[in-house]
């Protein structure tokens, strides 16, 4: 750490997943390895090869915020999940509306895609009618959703939307972390969000990347991923600022690594070169060795190529120490949340560190022989201080985040 | 903060491939012609498209770009020009990549979603990966053979300046040796329809890029203003004047920019309002303005400022100076 580098802690974490809305319901779900897969209800999936996903059930009543009911109702499904998560994180952190510049850094793959689809269908089929179209154009874009969060909570600052496919959420948190670490800001709001949309579902189905039965990461006979949806938001704060406020601290971000796999647009390098680089970079920044890590939340989508590549990367990175490194993929329970995945899994790591338990994935009875690490398949308690989270995406976007137990 | 220098610039725009085309067109006040694009029902909308380059650039034959959407061609074209390359690098540099987009890969998205609505079982698996926001940025890193950091930022016309800011931080922290920052767009019928409803200018396509490093060069990035987002507690005109005040405080001579601008305006000292000239290039518009400003400084002007009044996110500015 350079002399001017500052320590960054998490003082608030909000989460919305198919397991529930809020920290407590999700903590219970992740700790016990619950699954939330079911038939797709958000659109007609009857003509798709695969028809299951993990959908969020949003609360019927809007959250309390500075937005009016009318303003809230104009927001699409993804933006609503984002708002629920942001409000929970903001409340946990004890932050209040302020004139201080607070950056917001969000990751997403598709923003308000459902509004984009509505726009397309009307433009395609309704002639020159422009009813609601301007609103859809405005609210479809993720920068509008970020501004909605600022308006809802009463703050302002730079907006960064990182769209690095399935690594977006991790990149967003890493970017926000670096903004504080480098001394530019004292506080940031960051996270990731995505809702299931017909276009994206059909896209993964067209690639035959979706499992017809439900994701089984690192299983010998895994057959694809399952899509999920949700949002997670972290309030990050410089350590001394949090201590001076007497704030609760969920944990510390110690490292972040980001690299690009240029071998193929949609397939990882078989040996996981970029995955290896990100794990090494995050640990180097945090000044820790693989043997120091107590839990690794894998990207673990359940596709043949991702899981074998990631397993090889872990083996190369940790060597013999991998035999003592518990690994799991929480996508076994909630599916792949795309741009939200890295942020959700960051919160899972913080929950696990705070509660001293390991999140199990209960769907993997026969493990891929490429895995030289123990998969966490049953709920278990464990004393540990460091957790690493991997996120990899289309376009070769790779990111790893290193978390430390609260001080 | 370590000084950040500009080492190269490039542009692909409705007036042609290359920054020279853009500057020549600005100097002669020869605006690009509008072309019609058809909605599925036959209704036509005027847009500004990039002319086909003849001869075809050799980099378009690279395997990663053969099936790529036009936005990737533009971003790679502008990026390679900024890097001073015609094909791929001959030496290994630690080159980070940052691309800003607003609409992104809309042409393949339109095609793919059309296929999904018609018959999802036969929707093309070749199209979907190219619809993802970061596909063009990934192609650029792949063409460069660079495994360094790569971000795609979604924003309005100001996204390019956000990219410069992020690149400056990466360079300052020593995370990369060089960083190519690009902004690009392509025009499909749905973008044109959206533009018809929300933009005062015809929608345009293309890309712009600059190459940054901490290694000294004649052009320095002096300042990127604070971001001035369109939160509801601030009026749009107030946001614009706050940004212009930031530029004035830093020594720019932009007082004639004070009247509130139209959404999508990308003003560049010495080049005027590029959206009024080229069309609303969305994320590419901010990149063209910055590339034009850098080019005018490189050709002898002491400094040039860029002021962008985005469509739906923020106002932001930058100043480039001759060292």
Describe the fold and architecture:
The complex is a heterodimer of chains A (407) and B (323). By secondary structure, chain A is an alpha/beta fold. Chain A contains 13 helices and 15 strands. In chain A, the strands form three sheets. In chain A, strands 1, 2, 5, 6, 7, 8, 9, 10, 11, 14 and 15 form an eleven-stranded mixed beta sheet that branches. Chain A has a two-stranded antiparallel sheet with strand order 3-4. The longest helix of chain A has 17 residues, at 77-93. Chain A is globular, with a radius of gyration of 20 Å. Chain B folds into two domains: 4-217, Peroxisomal Thiolase, Chain A, domain 1, CATH 3.40.47.10; 220-322, no CATH class. Helices cover 35% and strands 25% of the residues of chain B. In chain B, a hairpin with a 2-residue loop joins strand 1 (4-13) and strand 2 (16-17). The interface between A and B is large, with 67 and 70 residues.
Entry keywords:
heterodimer, A: 407 residues, alpha/beta, Peroxisomal Thiolase, Chain A, domain 1, eleven-stranded mixed beta sheet, B: 323 residues, alpha+beta, 2 domains, twelve-stranded mixed beta sheet, three-stranded mixed beta sheet, 35% helix, globular
């Amino acid at each position: 750490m350079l002399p001017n580098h500052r320590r960054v802690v998490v003082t608030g974490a909000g989460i919305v997943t198919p397991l529930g809305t809020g920290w407590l319901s999700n903590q219970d779900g992740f700790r016990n390895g619950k699954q939330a897969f079911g038939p797709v209800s958000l659109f007609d999936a009857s003509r798709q090869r695969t028809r299951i996903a993990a959908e969020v059930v949003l609360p019927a009543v809007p959250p309390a915020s500075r937005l009016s009911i009318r303003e809230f109702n104009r927001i699409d499904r993804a933006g609503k999940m984002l708002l629920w998560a942001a409000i929970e994180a903001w409340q946990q952190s004890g932050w209040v509306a302020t004139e201080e510049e607070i950056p917001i850094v969000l990751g997403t793959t598709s923003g308000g895609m459902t509004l984009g689809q509505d726009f397309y269908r009307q433009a395609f089929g309704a002639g020159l009618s422009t009813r609601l179209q301007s609103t859809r154009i405005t609210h479809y874009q993720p920068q509008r959703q970020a501004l909605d969060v600022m308006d809802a909570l009463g703050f302002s600052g730079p907006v960064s939307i990182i769209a690095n496919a399935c690594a977006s959420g991790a990149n967003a948190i890493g970017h926000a972390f670096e903004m504080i670490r480098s001394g530019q800001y004292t506080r940031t709001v960051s996270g990731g969000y995505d809702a299931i949309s017909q276009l994206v579902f059909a896209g993964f189905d067209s690639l035959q990347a979706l499992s017809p039965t439900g994701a089984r990461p690192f299983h010998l006979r895994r057959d694809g991923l399952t899509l999920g949806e949700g949002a997670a938001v972290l309030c990050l704060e410089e350590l001394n600022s949090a201590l001076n406020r007497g704030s609760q601290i969920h944990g510390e971000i110690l490292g972040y690594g980001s690299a690009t796999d240029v071998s193929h647009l949609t397939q990882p390098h078989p040996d996981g070169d970029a995955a290896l680089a990100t794990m090494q970079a995050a640990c180097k920044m945090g000044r820790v060795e693989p043997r120091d890590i107590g839990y690794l939340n894998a990207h673990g989508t359940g596709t043949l190529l991702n899981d074998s590549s990631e397993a090889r990367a872990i083996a190369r990175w940790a060597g013999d120490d991998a035999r003592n490194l518990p690994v799991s993929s929480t996508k076994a329970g909630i599916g792949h949340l795309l741009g939200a995945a890295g942020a959700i899994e960051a919160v899972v790591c913080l929950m696990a560190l705070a509660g001293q338990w390991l999140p199990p994935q209960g769907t993997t009875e026969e493990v891929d022989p490429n895995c030289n690490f123990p998969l966490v398949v049953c709920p278990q308690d464990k004393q540990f201080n460091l957790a690493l989270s991997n996120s990899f995406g289309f376009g070769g976007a790779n990111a790893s985040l290193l978390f430390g137990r609260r001080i | 903060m370590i000084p950040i220098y500009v080492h190269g610039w490039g542009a692909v725009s409705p007036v042609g491939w290359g920054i020279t085309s853009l500057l020549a067109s600005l100097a002669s006040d020869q605006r690009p012609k509008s072309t019609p694009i058809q909605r599925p029902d036959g209704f036509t909308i005027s847009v500004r498209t990039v002319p086909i380059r003849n001869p075809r650039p050799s980099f378009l034959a690279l395997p990663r770009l053969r099936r790529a959407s036009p936005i990737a061609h533009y971003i790679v074209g502008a990026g390679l020009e900024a890097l001073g390359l015609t094909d791929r690098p001959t030496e290994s540099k630690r080159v980070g990549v940052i691309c800003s987009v607003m609409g992104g890969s809309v042409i393949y998205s339109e095609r793919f979603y059309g296929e999904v609505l018609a018959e999802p079982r036969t929707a093309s698996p070749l199209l979907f990966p190219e619809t993802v926001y970061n596909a063009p940025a990934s192609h650029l890193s792949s063409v460069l053979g660079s495994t360094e950091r790569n971000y795609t930022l979604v924003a309005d016309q100001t996204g390019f300046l956000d990219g410069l800011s992020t690149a400056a931080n990466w360079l300052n922290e020593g995370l990369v040796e060089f960083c190519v920052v690009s902004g690009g767009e392509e025009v499909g019928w749905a973008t044109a329809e959206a533009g018809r409803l929300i933009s005062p200018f015809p929608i345009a396509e293309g890309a712009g890029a600059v190459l940054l490093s901490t290694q000294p060069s004649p052009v320095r990035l002096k300042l990127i203003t604070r971001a001035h987002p369109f939160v509801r507690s601030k009026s749009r005109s107030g946001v614009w004047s706050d940004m212009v005040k930031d530029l004035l405080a830093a020594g720019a001579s932009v007082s004639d920019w004070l009247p509130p601008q139209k959404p999508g305006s990308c003003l560049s000292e010495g080049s005027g309002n590029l959206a009024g000239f080229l069309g609303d290039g969305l994320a590419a518009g901010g990149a063209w303005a910055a590339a034009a400003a850098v080019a005018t400084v490189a050709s002898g002007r002491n400094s040039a400022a860029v002021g962008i009044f985005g469509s739906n996110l923020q106002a932001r500015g930058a100043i480039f100076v001759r060292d």
